[in-house]
Amino acid sequence: MGHAIATGLARAGAHVVVNGRGEERVADAVRTVSADSGSDDVIGAVGDLATERGTAAVLEAVPTVDILRELVGDELPWDEAQHAFMAKYRPQSLLQRLIEPEEIANLVVYLASPHASATTGGAVRVGGGYVDSILP
What we know:
The chain is 43% helix and 7% strand. The chain is mainly alpha-helical.
């Protein structure tokens, strides 16, 4: 999810900072997002935002932030996430599939853009039509 959002924002022209606790993973993510987005405006900032020391290191590298997308923990591999979703929620999903990360990234890019200037006070969902009240 984080990769898709960072790539979408970079493609839209945003200056993207990839953060993580490990230098190697951050460097790999910067290379991947840069390559996938075609943007040279992607940098890394290593630091654990759950600690004062890590937060201070990141703020020193990147003192201002307009958009922050946080991902805590490891993401489930896509095929495993898809399988788990289909087994548990498919009968209640209008799309009958798990939402692709790029579909969520598209909404994040829109909401972070000037195009969303009149979008106020609402909860915008990318839920694929999932509702508990739909009967199988």
